[in-house]
């Protein structure tokens, strides 16, 4: 047990060394004293999007459990833009999906275990999926505070942001959701799950319906969700690849038919409008690059609980290559030219 604790503390120190080195320019500020939390346990290191809308109360709620420690403030795309031109996706080399770009990257690079961002039009779910990470958003988290930050998107749609969570580990995502939301204790059962008639989902509760083209404009997808979410426990959509073949950004896409086509090819389907209809949503990465399952429900405790219980059925194995390469923090500090005598 003592050896495990020592290894955990060494690992935490390496996370801070990497955050201070900041090789990818994804960190705004580091809190090295997060390591003090190891005096009473083995905490999950938190990275928070450096944005005033995220309440300090939320971080305190997590830290008061003794299971979390604030580690970094993370960079994000300017003005909530859907891509971040200042940092790159390490899997594609393309501009990183925004706007919670740094928060997602710092989880991916193993600096942090949990990322807390904000999602207006896919700003948590899209970065998470683009990096094969788990993501969750809920209008129920710090609802009154988040409603103070009502704004208009670059394509003219009004919304209030939701708090979102990003992790590498499904169990950590589940535990964090339980900490910040009051969900029912009893195991819930779905009576109606809606999926596309092209979906491979085969749960007995699933009803297949016709979905609109996921590359449609946001207004079309918003109408679809508003008409449909109330009719089911939750909906399932397989989406992506996010920002692999195209770039899902309205500034880029507004110029001409070619840029508009590239914007539609970005693989951001229902995930980019989930928050705009006040839905709760979770994304589960698949094996394909930048792809995965997106589950959406009305933002109520019962429906969110049901959605998460079924989402767990979609969780697959870890990508061993990504873990070996990006999880090896020693690579950043290798002396490189041999040993001193």
Automatic annotation (TrEMBL):
InterPro entries: Amidase_dom, AS_sf
Amidase domain location: 87-136
Domain of life per record: Bacteria
Protein known as: Amidase family protein
Organism placement in taxonomy: Bacteria, Bacillati, Bacillota, Clostridia, Lachnospirales
């Amino acid at each position: 047990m003592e050896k495990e604790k020592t290894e955990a503390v060494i690992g935490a120190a390496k996370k801070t060394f990497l955050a201070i080195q900041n090789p990818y320019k994804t960190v705004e500020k580091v809190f090295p004293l997060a390591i003090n939390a190891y005096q009473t346990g083995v905490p999950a290191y938190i990275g928070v999007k450096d944005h005033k809308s995220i309440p300090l109360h939320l971080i305190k709620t997590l830290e008061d459990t003794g299971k979390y420690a604030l580690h970094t403030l993370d960079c994000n795309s300017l003005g909530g833009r859907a891509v971040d031109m200042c940092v790159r996706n390490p899997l594609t080399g393309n501009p990183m999906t925004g706007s919670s770009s740094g928060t997602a990257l710092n989880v991916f690079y193993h600096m942090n275990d949990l990322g807390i961002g904000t999602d207006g039009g896919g700003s948590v779910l899209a970065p998470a999926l683009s990096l094969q990470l788990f993501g969750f958003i809920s209008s129920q988290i710090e609802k009154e505070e988040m409603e103070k930050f009502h704004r208009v998107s670059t394509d003219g749609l009004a919304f209030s942001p939701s708090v979102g969570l990003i992790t590498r580990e499904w169990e950590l995502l589940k535990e964090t959701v339980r900490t910040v939301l009051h969900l029912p204790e009893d195991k819930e059962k779905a009576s109606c799950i809606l999926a596309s008639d092209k979906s491979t989902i085969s749960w007995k509760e699933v009803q297949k319906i016709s979905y609109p083209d996921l590359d449609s404009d946001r207004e079309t997808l918003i109408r679809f969700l508003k008409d449909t979410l109330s009719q089911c426990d939750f909906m399932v959509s397989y989406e992506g690849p996010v920002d692999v073949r195209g770039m899902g950004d309205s500034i880029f896409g507004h110029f001409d038919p070619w840029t508009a086509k590239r914007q539609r090819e970005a693989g951001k389907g229902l995930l980019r409008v989930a928050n705009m209809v006040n839905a709760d949503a979770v994304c589960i990465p698949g094996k394909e690059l930048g792809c995965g399952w997106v589950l959406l429900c009305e933002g109520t405790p019962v429906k969110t609980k049901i959605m998460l219980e079924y989402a767990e059925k979609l969780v697959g194995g870890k990508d061993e290559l990504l873990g070996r390469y990006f999880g090896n923090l020693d690579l950043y500090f290798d002396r490189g030219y041999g040993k001193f005598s």
